[in-house]
Amino acid sequence: MKDHKTLKTRELFAMMTIFVGMKLADTTPSLLSSKASNAFWMIPIISFIVIIPSFLLLIFLLKKYKDKNLIQLLEAILGTYLGKALGFTIFLSAFLSLSLDSRNYVEQIKLLYFPESPTTILYFVFIGVAFIGAKKGLEVIGYSSWIGLPLIKFSMLLMAFLIFDRIILLRIFPIFGDGLDVVLTQGIKKASIFSELFLFTIAYTAFKDTNTFRKGSYLGSFVVIFEITFFFLLYTLVFDYNSVGKVAFPFHDITQYINFGDYFTNVETFFMVFWLLAAYMRFIIFLYLIAWIFAAVFNIKEFEPLILPFAFFTIIIGMIPDNTLLNDLFYRDRLLNYMTPLFISFPIILWIVAFFKGDLKKT
Amino acid sequence: MRLKTIILIIMLIPLFLVGCYDKKELEQQAYVVAIGVDKTDEKGLYKFTFQIANPEVGSAIVGGGSQEEPKETVSIKGSDILTATNTANSFVSREITLDHTKVLIASEELARSGDFIRIMQSTARTTQIRRGVQILVSKEDASEFLQNINPKMETRPHKYYQLILDRAKETGIIPEAEIHRFFQITEGDADLFLAIYATNKKAKEKDDGYEDEYVAGQLPKEGGNNSQFMGSAVFKEGKMIGTLDGQETRLAHVFDPTLDMDDLLSTYPDPIKEEFRIGADYSQKSSPEINIEYNKNKPTKINVRVPFQIEIIAIPSLVDYSQNKDNKELLKKTIEESLEKKSRELIRKTQEEYKAEPFYWSLYIRKYFKTIEEYEEADWNKNIYPNAEININFDLERLEFGKMLNDSNLTEVRD
């Protein structure tokens, strides 16, 4: 493992906002809105409230145990075997969600911009780029995220600005959409949309000092929840309650809808460039973290050669579902539901065990 | 070692070719600017008309002046728009691309049949047709309408549609009729959707109407293009049920806070010399205030207050309204009353004839419900609106008289 440790708060912040914030522009909003109609913008807030205590608890434990990353922490608290088993479960769920997510992105690119190209070829090119990026190492990923961040966020804000005169505030009513119960249950079930925040803890020790990691992750997660909610609300206000559940890619639908005045029409390709940049960054980070977690579980020192086989397996698993709809509405929906209890509970279990072992009193 | 690297690079170069799967030369594409849809005798089969722009005409690059037509209009039968583009390729030489479509035209016959919504569904599924495409209903067959569009000044068809629709929308005589709005309103199932109404055919001219009391086809005009865009086609649940004339469409703009209209020149009766009318520029600085008082078991009360401003542009009767205080008050009252009277007529028409409103007022009742289920159960367009007590109040906030203090004094001129 390279140990330069030049990464600072801002790189982590950039990585987090791109990695998790990208969810506002993929199929996550349509997955949620098909369940809760116009109230779906509240789901991320509820999910965040549900999952953030576990995340903070994990950060707290990492702070207590000092200089350990996620897997080392698991092993230190639960013992080698149990720790490795739990680490492997986390790896599996993350890897599955990487595969399904990447398939989703590829389908979006195909459907919207490259209708004639075969999915397999697009998939190989997409993951190929992610692989090359991931191979460059954490420093390069961090810096590129930081450089790309303003461009990506600017294009998104521009989109929000251009659509602003089409929104109608009153569409927020009826306030609870399909019912408060639906919003609450979905909010709790889908808490795992923020599970990716946990994956960053594998890189806990890779930053200049652990303090920068904590600052970056607090800042990153709060910005992410803010922007996700903002854009989900925007989709509700643009599409209204009956249509928002039917639109598969609300972000792209909006970019197709807006114009720069009368002269520059059909400008979606402009937004597509930045979206694609963000999508690449997301999968570069995803691939890298997953290879790292796997290596940590199996005590592999040099984990960068692992990225290639993982990239390959991602494609193989991602190709299994027949079509996007099945992938998104069935597999991904289920996976998110299964992942939620895992990510909510494991930091709590860790804390309880650590508490009874008496580790928490040491410092 | 170097040789190996070079060979490897050469072997990787073909990989870049994967980007060519979707390669399409501009030259190989035919850009459709207008799509027409008509009914045929068979169910499930429609006649599609594509108006294809010729990008060579009217561009500065072609120096010598091309002899080609600016557009080509072709019709073909098919069951949905996209498959019809393929069939049309048996006689159109290029790949038909719908990305630049500006208007979607349905014949009145199709719109009234209720099959219209089936066609619309397929437009939402494809990425080629944008949400910003305008929906237009033509009185005659859409194919006939498109064949006969022959603007004299705008040879390039895309510019023609863009300019005429934008300008007519600014004046409020035709509504904003984007596909996006069609879906929101139709799927929302609470309000009426207004589409643009147009024709190329002259109907019986209506000579007694004032400036905006026409629907397309009725305008008594001389010269100019035959195509008229005026008034709106009213859609209820995806099916056309009637038409509104230009004036009613303007009023719908006034009452609908989600629409805006920039330019409304119109005339009002002269209160003193009744044979004349007064020309005025109506403008609205803020949205109308719509207050809905929802009552579960008795009629709901809807109070609408429209604050507006008037700039007088013509007083053909030459009566002094600007300096004489009594006259001014009288004029103010007449304008308000005239607007209120017209509004009451429109409201009565929507409540009794259509049993739903085209003003998007369902937005204002929503806050009384917590869930969609409750909201849909209360049923705005079947239950609440047709029985509501509606009170319209026009409030003239400012009356201005242009840059003249007073008109010429007729008796002095003619002594």
What does this 3D model show about the protein?
The complex is a heterodimer of chains A (363) and B (415). Chain A is mainly α and 363 residues long. The radius of gyration of chain A is 20 Å and the shape is globular. Chain A has a single domain (9-355), classed as Amino acid/polyamine transporter I. The model of chain A has no long low-confidence stretch (mean pLDDT 87). Chain A is built from 14 helices and no strands. Chain B is an alpha/beta fold and 415 residues long. Chain B folds into two domains: 29-248, no CATH class; 263-415, Nutrient germinant receptor protein C, domain 3 (GMP Synthetase, Chain A, domain 3, 2-Layer Sandwich), CATH 3.30.300. In chain B, 30% of the residues lie in helices and 26% in strands. Chain B has helices at 2-12, 81-88, 108-113, 116-125, 142-147, 157-170, 179-188, 246-255, 325-354, 362-365, 372-378, 380-384, 410-413; strands at residues 29-39, 46-53, 71-78, 95-97, 103-107, 134-138, 193-199, 228-236, 239-244, 264-269, 277-283, 289-293, 301-314, 389-400. In chain B, strand 12 and strand 13 (301-314) form a beta hairpin. The radius of gyration of chain B is 26 Å and the shape is globular.
